[in-house]
Amino acid sequence: MIALRLTSIKDCMSHLLLSETFDNFQFIEGEIVTFNTFTIDGYIQKSFYPEEEELPEYSLWKSLREYCFTLIKGKKTPLSFKFIFSLSPENTARLITQNHLDFHPDQIQGLYLNIRYDGTTLQCITGTSLKTFTMDKSLEHSWDTMVQKFFTQKQIVYDLE
d(Cα 100, Cα 117) in Å, to the nearest integer? Predict the structure, then answer.
């Protein structure tokens, strides 16, 4: 787990709400506090869709990004917000393969990005959740490294906290 302070709030918000930067991450949950508190659960309600459709467990950010932007945009900045993203199962498997890790994708509950704004500071905290106990931290370290590379590649400026 690492904590990153995202130093250019305006640029990061543009990546988060106006571009496709985070679109392929699963959206686990979020909360936006403006004139009310809006809570969003990213869990897909499969009974809403026809039975034939094969659906993932969580929505992708791209399906909720515009809705969240609508809640945040305006003359006043939000009082706060938090979004929890998870790396997709396909990209989790790719991370394991690329880093030659001794993990199977079924062992991993999630690789998370927790993005929080408290009214003044924008922060991203990484997280790793496994379905089994292990002392092996190689997955966590690989995830932390990947997040830093991703932010650097996307020109999202950060400081390690």
Answer: 35
